[in-house]
Amino acid sequence: MNRTKTMRMARSIHGMIGVLGVLASLFPISAQAEPTSLVYLNGQPTPVYFNDGDSFRVLDGELVQTTARLAGFNTLETHGPVHQWGGWHRKELYALAKAATLNARRGTWHCTSDLKRDGYGRILWFCLDLAKDQVRHGYAHALVVGDEVAHPEILEAQREAIGARRGMWAKGVPTFVISSTHSSSEATGGLVGQNYNRLVSTVDGHSERMLHNDRYDECQNVCSKVTITTRENALHVIAELRANTESFAAVKGVSDALLIQIIDEYAHLKKMPRVLGEGSRAAIERALRSLLDQGAFGPLEKQTSSCMVYVSFERRYRADKPECLKW
To answer: How far apart (Å, rounded) are the C-alpha atoms in residues 49 and 102?
Structure first.
């Protein structure tokens, strides 16, 4: 190697060392351990750390060290491979949960809150842009705790993701996603000997409490069972809805995929999900009730909707975590 090339290489290496030195001064090791994202909290630009795709901790400012729970949507659990439905392996859905965390960290988001706290001391924030982005990618699903319906823009993003079989919907769309499990030994909510698992509708995002008295073993696979019709019978019901003079206008422009979801939920709960307009919803519900009475749904059958591995909250994040949570 000649003298000129040697000098150029030396200058290049010296320059790289200088750049690395500047980066090290700006981002010390302690800061690098927690990737920082920019979120506007009630209009104030604020650095935060996303520990998963739907929660973060504030790193600076007036709310420093406060933790957040984000409303309107839900990403899958990141404490281990615990979710399963359709053709998915639990570890595949776990990878999608991790992808949701990375997606949140890479963006700049806008959140609003009245700064009230939940029972765990977390501030509840609503970040519509983040929610829509996570849901549109199939990294999250719409969720409202209770009987209310999710934000229409979040539901629109979910219908788009389901239609494209994107993310968590690529290998099946359950009627309900089981988002939390509680053993009767936990006595959550003051219900002695009676507990619940939370089921989230994939149609409108509302959640149902499945009350039970079951005591779960650690690492037990807990599944939600729903009463649905076959796909063949669901398509027959859709054909009847499109031919019926009363429901024809109500289902016009509604995809078969969404109608199948609506029919499955109606078969299980015997009530119409609160999507579409009120008039359309009422017309479809009357038609479904009539078709069910006429036997158009065929024989209804119990099927597994989705499953989740049970591990108590206290055991999820220990160094000696249960074997079922190890990646």
So the answer is: 11
